[in-house]
Amino acid sequence: MRNFFSTPTAIVGTVLLAIVCFAAIFGPMIAPYDPQAFDPLNRLQGPSMMHLFGTDQFGRDLLSRILTGAPSTVAFGVGATLLGVGIGSIIGVVAGVTGGWVDSTIMRILDGLLAVPDLLFTLLIVTILGGGMEHAMLAVSIAFAPGMARISRSAVLSVRTRDYVRAAVARGESGVYIVTCEVLPNALSPIVVEATIRVSFAIMIGATLGFLGLGAQPPSTEWGLMVAEARQFMFRNPWCVAIPGLSIAIAALGFNLFGDALRDALDPKRSHG
Amino acid sequence: MTSFMISRRSVMMGLAGGLAATALIPGIDMSEALAADTPKAGGTLKISHSTRIATLNVLNCSGPAEYPVVDMLYSGLTRMGPDNKPMADLAERWEGSEDAKTFTFYLRKGIVFHDGTPCTADDVVATYQAILNPDIPAAARSVLNMIEKIEAVDATTVKFTLKTPFADLPISTAHANARIVSKVALSGPREKLDTTANGTGPFKLETYDSARMVRLVKNENYFIKGKPYLDGIDMMLFPDLAAESANFLSGAVDVMLVVQQADFQRIADATGITAQRIPSGRFVNITMRQDQKPFDDVRVRKALAMSVDRPTLVDLVLEGLGRPAYDNLVSPEFPYAIETPEIAYDPAGAKKLLAEAGYPDGIKIKLVASNRPAIRAQVAIALKQMALPAGFDIEVETMPHDTYLANVWMKGQFYMGYWGMQATEDATFNLLLTSNASYEDTAWKNKDFDKLIADARATVDPAKRKELYAKAQQLQLDETPYIVPIFEDILTASGKGAEDWTIAPLSRYYYAENVWLNKA
Amino acid sequence: MTRAYLIRRLLAVFLVLAIVTFAVFAITTMLPGNAAIMILGEYATPDAVAALEKQLHLDQPWYTQYLTWVAGILHGDLGTSLRLSLPVTQVVGEAFANSAMLALTALVVVTITAIPLGALAAIKRGTAMDLALGLFSYLGTCLPEFVTATLLLVFFAAPNHGLFPAGGFVAPWENLAGFGAHVVLPAATLGLVLMAHIARQVRSEMSEVLSSDYIRAARLKGLTERRVIRRHALPNSLAPAVAVISLDIGYLLGGIIVVEEIFAWPGLGRLLIYALENRDLPVIQAVTLLLAAVYALSNLLSDIVIALLDPRVRYA
Amino acid sequence: MTVQTMSQTVTAAAEKPALSIINYSLSYKTANGMVSALKNIDLTIPKGKTVGLVGESGSGKSSMAWSVMRYLPPNAVETGGAIRLAGEELLDYTPYQMLDIRGSRMSMVFQDPSTSLNPTIRLGEQIAEVLMRHRGLTKAQAWVEAEAALARTGITRPKEMLKRFPHEASGGEKQRVVIATAFACEPELIIFDEPTTALDILTARQILDLFNQLRDETNVSALYISHDLGLVSRVVDEVSVLHKGVIVERGLVGDVFQKPSAPYTKQLIGAVPNPDRWIGVDAPAVPQTLVKLDGIGVHYGAPSKIQKMFWPDDADKIGFWGAKDVNFEVRKGELLGVVGESGSGKSTIAKVLAGLQDFQGKLEFDGKTVGSRRAIDRAYRRRVQIVFQHPDASLNPRQKIGTIIARPLKLYGVVPREKIKARIAELLEMVRLPAEYADRYPHQLSGGEKQRVAIARAFAAEPELVICDEVTAALDVSVQAAVAELLVKLQKDTGAACVFITHDLNLIRQLAHRIAVMHHGKLVDFFDRPDARSADRDPYTKALLDAVPVHTPAEA
């Protein structure tokens, strides 16, 4: 992981990530207004000194809503990913380590699930669970699991044939030791990288669900929902769709860039920008 | 608030004078007010709508875009006019007995279905029997269940006999889902009703594509000579509201069936557009389950009622395109509506009342709202803000409509309802408030109230009924079983050259046979 | 690339689909609420609901429903839509055709623009143009469709002075120009993300190839740069590009759901959302199965194309 | 010819030399400043002569090649000097002009033919395109020419070969194609960059012969770059020894070999394995069998149960035999050499012995019979240790050296816990590494050091048999020798037996008491070291022995 900050990708990614995380942690505290407070006299305003990002259809301060929305948005992305990675990599590692028919059965089933597009899969599950932020998060993580399982499995497999693992086998090490001490530590980095990048996807899917009315629900300040609510006013005040929309993009971008930088740093062979 | 007065005024000015009139004196036929000159025949009217026409089954369709279509395809015995009074449709006249227990309807001569087969009393009987048959899904059953028997006296005369007296039968027969279907169609496989239509309405079904467009063409044999003027109507589906309004403004569509409050101002200001606000009894109501705390106590209900700033609510969620309501389900359009006293926004008073009721430090409670239509959540969110100073700590939970239907609707303790205007006071109360109402979801169950409604139902003399309904409404106002904060106007718009388009305050009636295209 | 290989792959596809059918059915039968309530809405009377449920056979146990459904599929009959009361094959068929038109338009445009773009960026590595592409591709991958779509609407479909219709659909055989006008924005929305991703992949593949020994060898043979790129580098970076595209089809199938909903495009995506809202199980199942099938088959197809592009695979 | 006389030929310039490099220097811009790669290089290749450039990895010999071909990375900085092709200053040529010179007037043969040929283009086209580019032939003519060129490289059915793709040709065939391409336009100069390193012994030999033959036919001038002095000695007239970017010695091959002047050259030559210089331990007095391989066989890609069930008859066709009934024994304390080309199955045997590979047949260890891999117990695993070829792959990058070496100690309880630290120090000392290395991570060590650690780990278990699978193959010549000597020393100290697997016959003949030769998974020959040259050797063994260059420098 040498000279991580050598690439612009890494620098920009880290900066964006820092901004997003800052907003996620301190957002609610530094929000200038109550994100739910109405201001009937200043509805659908453009940016002004009074409201830096303008106001929405109820005259609620967009900046405050974005800031208070940050925690849930980031929490959603990270939470969903962690959960998905957790479920996925357990399955994947089990498959990769045991091999044989267990492996092939698991892989067949995963292939089946992977054939269903992520968003579609998520939609189905979230409808079962019945909408709402938590359910959406669970749905996304379930939808992520197969992909993560695949990646962690291949990571394990690639490590399994390394000489130092062979050496451990030749020494007569226990399976547990080999997996925990020899395989996992070295299989980890691709999983971590993938996870970081997936956070951005999770954020986007979450926002999309909010937009479709299946994720967060009013009066939540989740960004996707904000876009959905403001859509019918978008011609009267483009800001109230543009601001939350771009916020989503920035959050996603932060994690995406950071993940790529991480990958480049961990794996110098891979050449791309 | 001023900005709203202005915007509202400008709306008025932006519209035809006749419209302003309708806003004040309900019940004048729009066509007269708006008619530019004598109707021209011909042309195809393009109507945009944002919800699917999932079925053409007149007996149980319920979609906002399904009503206009069945109104164009089918005719009932009677039909509600823009003045909320029953008008002739298939039946040119009707008469009821003194005791309001038997009614006779006289059909027009020589009515034919779209396929050319004659429409006779037998078809009417068959249709009503189908509606009353519990095995057949039929939305009109609830307003016609007092019918004991129906018989065809001759080819054009139908006689209804009722279990209980019911003076409003000619209004019930106008029910949008009580339109006459041919005997043949009813005896055949009923699924065919979903995708085909053989009615007696002004327009015939040409193509039915629920995903894109339903195309109707002129019914040459319509029983009113010279009508309809139009050669055809295209019902075009735009699920995305922004897309719909944009297409309407670009002139790609002649009529925008439903205009969103958010868009109304913009559309009204656009040149050549006639945007209409039709005052209606459509309302949002806050359901409070009264067989459990805290709403078992009338003072709590009243306290909440005092914590709603209704005029502001009208401005915020309806963009001013509606009227504040004061917890009376009966809107001024109804013949027996009483003068409802305003309820001032008085958080302090509410707080005191709450304290008396035994909640000195307020009430923390969850208010559920479905996400469809958006107005439910909007009112809920506004209410949360308005009731805060009064000591109501409301947590709004919005949920997808399906989840709402499955888990909350008719079960929940505190949630948002949304109802279209009903045809009569009787229908309104029997929908929600009487102990055996179809959607009795408050557990209010007031015997005196039930009696008043039952009596009114049986009374023919208008004066007496007025008195009884006045009592019922007063009782309702005293008890506040529901909080009804606003009446929502019906909003629709027609583009350049689309003349005489309007919707009844009841909605569900569109008079498309009067519409004509004034295009060079 | 023997026949045996093809057959093996096809069997695999069917296996996958078999798994999908079960998964989908299991999931859909778990959905709360039921079509009857959804159809009649909250203004329906309870007895009407009961009557409808009976009419829709919602009272049977799930396994009977599953078996009848599978048997139906094998006979090419997907049942009847509960909500639209039309044969599912018809409803889904039309929607599929429309989606295909949208997806293919996007895919074709993207492919013919993204590949050269990516290649160019790789050749002109480190230049402003490369940087611009990188930026664009990141932005593209990080804007959710609904945001892109909304912004496109604001800019290009504003009322009165809009360049394109804000939504809707015109069949090309009815009016080609109309179709063109309507397809621009939705296709652009889908395209942006795809283009970003594909261009990026092609770039990285290309630059990997360009740094390979045989390219060095080709240059040291004194070949003109033109030939080195066209004859030596491009073909070798094409195969992976195809692989990426086929994977992106999975993404595309997800993307149309949102895009069609926003632009009122009468395709599978909107049908699906409508079916989900209305608990129209037969339609949900059919659409999901169809999307999965398309994805699986497109992957198979891409493998074949790759095999044709790369002799090493071809004879493996 | 001596240094002086060579420089005279340059100054005389009676006929311009094919290539003359004068006082050439090159450095690279890197994160930590300029790094000098070549310093004041003087090198001349007279017409028709071949000059060898010998150096270990990192000596800058490849940079030299790139400089001559004018194909330098953007961060390269030429700090003066001249490179002249037949008198023309290449440094003055624009990249565009160089396009016409590369491939026509000078061409190059690369180390690894499998990566230097385009996998998706038929071999024919890859030769023909040069002819079309530089000799303006039409496609048809070019293909005819290509066939002829290929024929000259001794490929039996050139027409067929032209139609094949790289992956359809063997390593040797591919290298022939590359060579054919290089010779195609009859260039004045050809640069050979380790052209045989990636090839098997026999193939390498053939390529060398081919090179000599073509050189005589075409009288081309060549720069032959290699790390292998011994090999170079067989093809070049003059040789320059490159060390850390400086030419430390130059002269006629014979002279440099017989009386090297520069200390580095001396060391280099000393390191070159010399089969006649025995450095191994003395053979055990009384031969006692330690391990006995009894009909050992390994069937890769063996048919699954289902396949056996449905297609029993072609079960044997599926997959291939990595090793088929191999029988031999390893004696206590001896060093047994196992020799073979890649794919001969020598590594398979190593895996079997180390219990990493399922096998058929019987394995007899110290009297106990082991019937299958599963039957191998920890006791056996302790007594038999393995060292792998690639040191950087055989050490877990996430563990410190100390942890790595401590592992067997803990696992087998070789020493009590409290003594482990001390023992690690001892072991490191045994492999001549400072004790503080215990706290380092593998990537902080050089290849040779890593291999020492791997060896230390093996001997930490105090084994009776150590399997060394090509342990020196990945290392530089000098390091190679050191590691070999270390092994021998450890053997002396511990008395462990060793199975030493390698492809380097010279090296093995310095160490092994007995040598097993494997070919296509079979044991084809097995003999005591002294009998290496005896007449009754298997023809394959003979071929191998003939293939490797043996040179007898004066003991430096």
UniProtKB/TrEMBL annotation, chain A:
Protein's membrane topology: Multi-pass membrane protein
Protein's GO biological process: transmembrane transport
Subcellular localization: Cell membrane
PROSITE patterns (alphabetical): ABC_TM1
Main location: membrane
Top-rank taxon, per record: Bacteria
GO cellular component terms, A-Z: plasma membrane
Protein name per its UniProtKB record: ABC transporter permease
Transmembrane segments: 12-31, 74-97, 109-129, 195-216, 236-259
Record domain ABC transmembrane type-1: where: 70-259
UniProt keyword annotations, A-Z: Cell membrane, Membrane, Transmembrane, Transmembrane helix, Transport
Family per record: Belongs to the binding-protein-dependent transport system permease family.
A Pfam entry, by short name: OppC_N
TrEMBL record, chain B:
SUPFAM superfamilies (UniProt xref): Periplasmic binding protein-like II (SSF53850)
Any single Gene Ontology cellular-component annotation: ATP-binding cassette (ABC) transporter complex
Top-level taxon of origin: Bacteria
Similarity comment: Belongs to the bacterial solute-binding protein 5 family.
Cell location: Periplasm
Listed InterPro entries: Peptide/Ni-bd (IPR030678), SBP_5 (IPR039424), SBP_5_dom (IPR000914), TAT_signal (IPR006311)
Xref: Pfam families: SBP_bac_5
Solute-binding protein family domain boundaries: 86-437
GO terms of molecular function: peptide transmembrane transporter activity
CDD domains reported in the protein's UniProt record: PBP2_NikA_DppA_OppA_like_17
Principal subcellular localisation of the protein: periplasm
One annotated GO biological process: peptide transport
Stated name of the protein: ABC transporter substrate-binding protein
UniProtKB/TrEMBL annotation, chain C:
MF GO annotations: dipeptide transmembrane transporter activity
UniProt KW Iron keyword: no
Cross-referenced InterPro entries: BPD_transp_1_N, MetI-like, MetI-like_sf
Location within or outside the cell: Cell membrane
Residues covered by the ABC transmembrane type-1 domain: 96-302
GO CC entries: plasma membrane
Claim: Cell inner membrane is one of the keywords in the record: no
Topology with respect to the bilayer: Multi-pass membrane protein
Bilayer-crossing regions: 100-123, 135-156, 176-196, 237-263, 283-309
CDD domains with a match to the protein in the record: TM_PBP2
Main location: membrane
Family from the record: Belongs to the binding-protein-dependent transport system permease family.
UniProt cross-references to PANTHER family, sorted A to Z: DIPEPTIDE TRANSPORT SYSTEM PERMEASE PROTEIN DPPB-RELATED
Protein name: ABC transporter permease
